[in-house]
Amino acid sequence: MLLKEEQKYNQIIYHVESVDTGKTIKAILRKQWGVSGRLMTRIKKEKGITVNGTWAPFHQVLQEADQMVLNMAEESCEFEAENIPITVLYEDFDVLVVNKPPGMLTHPTVNIRRGTLANAVMQYMIDSKECYKIRFVNRLDMDTSGAMILAKNPFAHQQLAEQLSTTMEKEYLVFTLGQVNERKMSIQAPIYRPETIPEGEPPRRIVDERGKMAVSHFERLEVFPGASLLRIKIDTGRTHQIRVHMHYLGHSVIGDTFYEPDQPYRIRRQALHAEAITFIQPRTGEKIICRAKLPQDLKDLKTRLKEEEF
């Protein structure tokens, strides 16, 4: 039994019930908690399990009322902290979900070391008196805004990474060029990164049978004189998936000059926002739904699109 009020970001505290009497620690970790072999190896190496306050090997048999604790060693926090405000959508002992603003990198790069979301999270972590490796579960381009999940420990990261490609639900709002006729539609089209790029052309990904299958589902929310607002759910997470699929359909993302350079200027970035993300809490099994409000630049774009004349 897990008591939520006892849990910590670096400890899973478990009270053994009668149904678990006679089971080994290894059986609890592997069969009930779904701990991966890789993480099991790490836990064993670090001697991360205690029972009733004493280190215990994986083969130890548990008894009712035992307290088993999985201790996850604090890891180095490698980014420089910066006092950049962030909007927290949800937080518990395993997970931090934030609303990434547009125009912000997720991690520092060789050339850009400051001003990223990781720098901001570092400061937030310090203020919260916690210390964990920054592990973003999902990915967003620099100019895409919206919900991003961060795992606070290796157990949560393993569980969420598995959900990312299976049960995790990801919804986006996207403003596209032209009026989309279909109210709802599913797109199953493989995305491929060409091995050779013509001189002078950017390295765009394309829909091609040589690529990996990508699945997107869209619902038309609103139609403007020369544009549409869609909600898109993706089953896969290919690089630039929504941008490539919409370009393939002939309704490129507004502001996405990488895939559609010949479009009138309306906004300084692609009009794409990660509106919602739904996942299962790694430790408790609860269903968590996080929603990120539409940022001001997209609200302003929507107003302008309503007023355009075609």
Describe this structure in words.
The mean pLDDT is 93. This protein is 20% helix and 27% strand. Strands 5, 6, 7, 8, 9, 10, 13, 14, 15 and 16 form a ten-stranded mixed sheet that branches. A four-stranded antiparallel sheet has the order 1-4-2-3, with no helix packed on it. Strands 11-12 form a two-stranded antiparallel sheet. Among the domains are: 4-71, RNA-binding S4 domain (Structural Genomics Hypothetical 15.5 Kd Protein In mrcA-pckA Intergenic Region, Chain A); 169-195 and 204-274 and 298-307, Pseudouridine synthase (2-Layer Sandwich), CATH 3.30.2350. The protein is of the alpha+beta class and 310 residues long. The chain contains six helices and 16 strands.
Task: List its salient traits.
single chain, 310 residues, Structural Genomics Hypothetical 15.5 Kd Protein In mrcA-pckA Intergenic Region, Chain A, Pseudouridine synthase, ten-stranded mixed sheet, four-stranded antiparallel sheet, 6 helices, elongated
Question: What's the structural blueprint in terms of helices and strands?
Answer:
Elements: E1 11-15, H1 25-32, H2 37-46, E2 49-51, E3 54-55, E4 67-71, E5 87-91, E6 95-100, H3 117-127, E7 135-136, E8 145-151, H4 154-164, E9 169-177, E10 184-188, E11 191-192, E12 206-207, E13 215-224, E14 227-234, H5 241-249, E15 272-280, E16 287-291, H6 296-307
Parallel strand pairs: 8-15
Antiparallel strand pairs: 1-4, 2-3, 2-4, 5-6, 6-8, 7-8, 9-14, 9-15, 10-13, 11-12, 13-14, 15-16
- Which consecutive residue ranges, at least 5 long each, have pLDDT under 50? none
CATH class of one domain: Alpha Beta
CATH topology of one domain: Pseudouridine synthase
Overall residue-averaged pLDDT value: 93
Q: Structural class of the helix and strand makeup?
A: alpha+beta
CATH H-level superfamily title of one domain: Pseudouridine synthase
Integer-rounded radius of gyration: 23 Å
Overall geometry:
elongated
| Number of E-state strands | 16
